[in-house]
Amino acid sequence: MIVDERFATYINSLENGNKEYLDELEVYAKKTDVPIIRKEMQSLLKTLLVMSKPRQILEVGTAIGFSALLMAEAAPLAQITTIEKYEKRIPLAKANFEKYGKSEQITLLEGDATEILARLTGTYDFIFMDAAKGQYINFLPDVLRLLSEGGVLVSDNILQDGDIIESRFAITKRNRTIHARMREYLYTLKHHEQLETSILPLGDGVALSVKK
Ligand code: SAH
Ligand code: MG
Fold first, then answer.
1. Is 134 in the pocket of ligand 1 (CB under 6 A)?
2. What is the gyration radius of the CA atoms in the chain, in angstroms?
3. How many angstroms is it from 85 CA to the middle of ligand 1?
4. CB of 136 closer than 6 A to ligand 1?
């Protein structure tokens, strides 16, 4: 938790909730240890989607489809493409898109995002990055190629549970590579001439970028 838990609890207590099936899916995900976006990120995504009214959304990291479904509800006119590589989660995500009547609106691309992003063409006006943190920096060139002018890039989990501010020597060896890559990613987002980026200590940390 990077924000005082009492602030997060208070802010989340103001939420007026999602559709019932999303709440059920959220409970299911927590019970089965599937990582899904936190309440704070849910609220931010909904606000950004209503604000930017995207027509084409790209998500990297589907898991079982919770955030894709949440975005489908918040942006009913958008087409959503979402990428997932984990075989165990793919059938669950697909079943959820069917079950909740969103399989026309949401397309699941199966496989490693590194390869899939490289093959994708067209443009997206909203991209949600929520996959393996250590890979964001590798995905970035393709993500920027696919992002339209004025398009929004939202990157989740960028403060690495607070580790990001620590020196690399204070980080467990296991997390050092991710630490270095995430710092490089944030530096690049902030210094890239095509981007305007704001880093928000919300949830597990969010980078909000707009392509100029
Ligand atoms: N956005 C989802 C949660 C995604 S969790 C939600 O909030 O509902 C992150 C997911 O990214 C995991 O399911 C993981 O399997 C997937 N992932 C990680 N690295 C990936 C890669 N290189 N290509 C495709 N999927 C990846
Ligand atoms: Mg996440």
1. no
2. 17
3. 7
4. no
